[in-house]
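Example 3.2
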Amino acid sequence: MRSLASQPCYLPLHRLARVPDWAILHVILNAGRGGQVQGTYLYCSIGALTERDASGIAHHVRWSGGRLSVGSRIVVNVVETDQPDPPRKRYRSDKAVQENPFTEEELKEIRRQDYLELKQEFEPQR
């Protein structure tokens, strides 16, 4: 196995301890390759699932994550704070109402990435 030198990748620490209605908190490492993915895709996401409210509805909550590379290190510190960071997106977790899990900014970036991939496929460099 070859050794790859890399600087550690530090994601902003999100202060989740005092989010009042959380039921599950998670830090997920996503990795993919093959298919439509060029090379290897590495990403760390931070989120939660809330307890059900008075109407019986739970919500997914997402904070900003970050892209990783081979050699990245992920460090999680569990802290208590009276000033939790607001989530990037909060959306319903039920079948009755389907809310988009992405912010407008994220949707725009997804469309931009799709455009760049299609442009590369259909308008190759000369």
